[in-house]
Amino acid sequence: MRLYLDNSATSHPKPPGVLAAVVDYFESVHASAGRGSYREAVASARLLERCRAALARLLNCGPDDQVIFALNGTDALNLAIRGVLRPGDHAVTTAMDHNSVLRPLSALAEQMGVRWTAVEVDPDTTRLDPARLAAALRPDTRLVVVNHASNVTGVLQPIADVAAVCRSRGVTLLVDAAQSAGHVPIDFAGGGIDLLAMPGHKGLLGPLGTGVLVIRAGVAERMRTVREGGTGSASEQPAQPDVLPDRFEAGSHNGPGIAGLLAGCEWILERGVAALREHELRLSRRMIERLLEISGLEWYGPREVEQRVGVFSVHTAGLEPQELSALLEARGILTRSGLHCAPLAHRTIGTLPLGGTTRLSVGPFTTLADIDAAADALAELVLESAST
Ligand SMILES: Cc1ncc(COP(=O)(O)O)c(C=O)c1O
Fold first, then answer.
1. How far apart (Å, rounded) are the C-alpha atoms in residues 136 and 124?
2. Which of 55, 187, 276, 330 has minimal CB crowding within 10 Å?
């Protein structure tokens, strides 16, 4: 048995259409989008546009909002953070945010004197209080970055309330949807979000090497480019073209990856994100019931299922997180251990000195039987470690 419970890192399995789309790309498209006018290059460009349209439908983007392809979630966050912030600006994020937010902010602090604040969250639920975020805003705050769903505790943050705060204070809001896109309905047009970053290879079910940044109409004009280069357009001018999406997409695209991402998005659109959310809620309810039965096992984040996604971090006193992962793998259950690139989240829940947690994360193909198998294994291992 190989029971994959590391969907927060990258989703597996993908819907069968994803592999078929990647193979079809190599067999019948194979050209670089925007780099020629022959049939295959046009087909490649058309694929990109179909994928943008599918993403726009999935995320409910407005007609003038822009879908930009990036290399992964980290790259999309960098394009946004480095695009918006200027020397001396202040930025606000949260203690639940990922190193793909914290490290660009730290680098900008060193490189151009950006200052930033990470707002603390409730240590029990790990939920952000929007009033606390509002209190951290300063007259020089240009950007707020908030993680939608935590990759450590699974908590869903109150994005609508955060957006209302940012709107009222005229601050740009970037949401990291790495663990929520494809899992939870997202209303970009109605949600008051300015920038939405996500990987294509997690909940959107595309291949590794894909990422997406959605930019609200009018926001790109306030952003600088992070990299410049060939776009196949306006090649006579030395400067990066202003036209979108070219302005933020320098260099050849990941055609096969985007073909697979399109297939992943189409699979999600066919089922509907609401139905996938229902499935994940059923899995999460079962997981919560089972975790509550295991004495000696700590687990973190909200007990209220509606306030979370299917990401569960656990810890037991007798075993290092890596040891628990190794013992689970010996039983065919694949998890991830450590700090999950989110050190402040572990400081918040008290697991930083313990070496982090062992994380189990579900996907659309996970079943209730899989949850039971994982919970049975955890219960046995905790019992064994307590008796040795
Ligand atoms: C919350 C969060 N943000 C950002 C990222 C970065 O995404 P990627 O691994 O695609 O760069 C991850 C991935 O682990 C994540 O969980």
1. 21
2. 330
Quote the pTM value: 0.98
| Pick from 202, 253, 342: nearest CA to 46 | 253
- pLDDT at residue number 367: 98
Report pLDDT digits (tens) over 349-380: 999 999 999 999 999 999 999 999 999 999 99
CATH code of domain 3-11+272-386: 3.90.1150.10
Residue 388, pLDDT > 90, answer no
What is d(CA 228, CA 215) in angstroms, rounded to the nearest whole number?
18
List the structure tokens of 383. 């019992």
Cβ(74) – ligand 1 distance below 6 Å: yes
Contact 67, 75 (CB under 8 A): no
- Tell me how far apart the alpha carbons of residues 288 and 303 are, in angstroms, rounded to a whole number: 7
Q: Could you tell me the two tokens for 269?
A: 């659109």
Q: What does pLDDT average to over the chain?
A: 97
Q: Which of 75, 100, 101, 308 to mutate to test the pocket of ligand 1 (most atoms within 8 A of CB)?
A: 100
- Using alpha carbons only, give the angle 367, 373, 374 rounded to the nearest 5 degrees: 95
Tell the residue nearest (CA) to atom 2 of ligand 1. Answer: 178
User: Using one digit for the tens of pLDDT, what is the confidence trace for 151-201?
Assistant: 999 999 999 999 999 999 999 999 999 999 999 999 999 999 999 999 999
Are the C-beta atoms of 85 and 222 separated by less than 8 Å?
Answer: no
Residue minimizing CA distance to atom 8 of ligand 1: 73
CATH fit for domain 16-271, picks 2.40.320.10, 3.40.30.10, 3.40.50.300, 3.40.640.10: 3.40.640.10
Burial of 246 (0-12, 13-18, 19+ CB in 10 A): middle
Please choose, from the candidates 189, 88, 124, 18, the residue with its C-alpha nearest in 3D space to the C-alpha of residue 350.
Answer: 124
Task: Return the domain boundaries, the chain.
Answer: 3-11+272-386, 16-271
**CB-based contacts of 176, cutoff 8 Å, min separation 6:** 73, 77, 97, 98, 100, 101, 145, 146, 147, 148, 197, 198
* Residue 34 in this model has a pLDDT that exceeds 90: no
